[in-house]
Write a structure and sequence with these properties.
It is built from eleven helices and 20 strands. With 393 residues, the chain is α/β, with parallel strands linked by helices. It has three domains: 65 residues, Archaeosine Trna-guanine Transglycosylase, Chain: A, domain 4; 98 residues, Transcription Regulator spoIIAA; 194 residues, Rossmann fold (3-Layer(aba) Sandwich), CATH 3.40.50. Helix 2 crosses helix 4, helix 6 runs parallel beside helix 7 and helix 10 packs across helix 11. It binds S-adenosyl-L-homocysteine (SAH).
């Protein structure tokens, strides 16, 4: 099938942007079923490349190749080989993102490795249609004991795809997979945890927390399975409090605490809503000194563009509260993983929160994901994870 763009609407594809929005399309010739390859042409008929097509989503084509190269099993093998080659540059860990969707030239495909197990998410109809080729390529090129599928979530629903969870190849992963990242042990629930089980994207920031934590009283907000908590404790923190609303998440965090042989008295695990927790001034039980290293890594407050206003309000509120409880000269690592809130916009919200809190902040570093989370340079929407390291007056 062929998709012909409107005049003047080929620029972003030529610039390497992986998405063609339905509004840019003049006509569709020989329309196929959702997820099938389509050749994309400029208005003058020049071939721009091939992508996977969907008639019902605002992203109508997700580009995979430029020029005349079509989408086939050989392309899938090449893309996966190129993605794996990049991961040889990631240091001391047995858990990495092997394929990062558009950033690896493979829209809709996420592949994570957790020790001996590989987890795949086919999030779009285009990626879904290539499942067998992907599994064959991964089975041939990784020493995985098992490949597990976790294809679920909003994007899939919007693509008209049902949830698919189960074994794709080899053995089923156990309920808890232990990974070792820079000497830290983390417990991953591959079958039922958030995303594919762990937030691999925060690895460089866990390393940073480990370096900064010595002697500090650490407050890890939205802790999930305690990634930052383990890093802080291993870095010599005086105390680490982990706050999350999910009992299952905290159970993983406590299991990880034990796997790392950390002293029980060093860690507190609090099941609470972060907003309430900070409002109630229950931080460190009220009587203890305030935290001097705060990690604030909330869930994406905006799941779609129309949530942006609400998301801004959420970020402002939670940053304000965190800044209010931080000790003088505390370090704050604050993050946003909302794709729909751009980096400048989010930084502005954090600055406004600092003003409201009456706490001047020094910007020490801008933070982002590790090199196993590449993004196409032209694809600003791919840069979802952003963070700031601040020192709070
Ligand atoms: N910082 C974590 C990832 C956070 S994911 C890491 O590095 O691994 C977001 C977490 O926030 C989830 O574990 C979810 O259970 C929790 N959560 C969502 N809303 C919450 C709320 N209002 N209060 C407390 N926890 C919340």
């Amino acid at each position: 099938m062929r998709v012909v763009l409107k005049p003047g609407r080929d620029f972003s594809v030529r610039a390497g942007h992986p998405w063609v929005f339905s509004g840019a399309i003049a006509r569709v010739e020989n329309a196929d079923v959702p997820g099938r390859p389509a050749q994309v042409c400029a208005a003058d008929g020049r071939v721009l490349g091939w992508g996977t097509w969907h008639p019902a989503t605002s992203i109508a084509v997700r580009m995979m190749t430029r020029g005349v190269r079509p989408i086939d099993a050989a392309l899938v093998r090449e893309r996966i080989a190129r993605a794996l080659a990049l991961r040889t540059l990631v240091g001391d860990t047995d858990a990495v993102r092997l394929v990062n969707g558009e950033g690896d030239g493979f829209p809709g495909l996420v592949v994570d490795r957790y020790a001996e197990f590989v987890v795949c998410q086919f999030l779009t109809a285009g990626a879904d249609a290539l499942r067998d080729d992907v599994v064959a390529a991964l089975a041939a090129s990784t020493p995985a004991r098992g490949i597990f599928e976790r294809s679920e979530g909003n994007v899939r629903t919007a693509e008209g795809l049902a949830r698919r969870v189960g074994v794709l190849y080899g053995e089923e992963p156990p309920p808890e997979v232990v990974i070792v990242e820079c000497g830290r042990r983390h417990v991953v629930d591959v079958r039922g945890g958030q995303k594919t089980g762990f937030f691999l994207d925060q690895r460089p920031n866990r390393d940073l927390v480990e370096r900064l934590a010595a002697g500090r009283r650490v407050l890890n907000l939205f802790a999930y399975s305690g990634g930052f908590s383990i890093a802080a404790a291993r870095g010599g923190a005086a105390h680490v409090a982990s706050v999350d609303s999910s009992a299952a998440a905290l159970a993983l965090a406590e299991a990880a605490w034990r796997f790392n042989g950390l002293a029980e008295a060093l860690g507190t695990f609090v099941r609470a809503d972060v907003f309430d927790h900070l409002r109630d001034d229950r931080v460190f039980g009220g009587a203890a000194p305030p935290p001097d290293l705060v990690v604030l890594d909330p869930p994406p407050f905006a799941r779609r563009r129309s949530d942006r206003e609400r998301a801004r309000a959420g970020y402002r509120d939670v940053n304000l509260r965190a800044l209010r409880v931080a000790a003088p000269d505390a370090l704050l690592l604050t993050f946003s993983c909302s794709q729909h809130v751009a980096v400048e916009e989010w930084e502005g919200v954090v600055a406004a929160a600092a003003m409201d809190a009456g706490r001047a902040c020094q910007l020490l570093a801008r933070l982002g994901p590790g090199i196993d989370h590449p993004q196409a340079l032209a694809h600003a929407e791919g840069r979802y994870l952003k963070g700031l390291l601040l020192r709070v007056e």
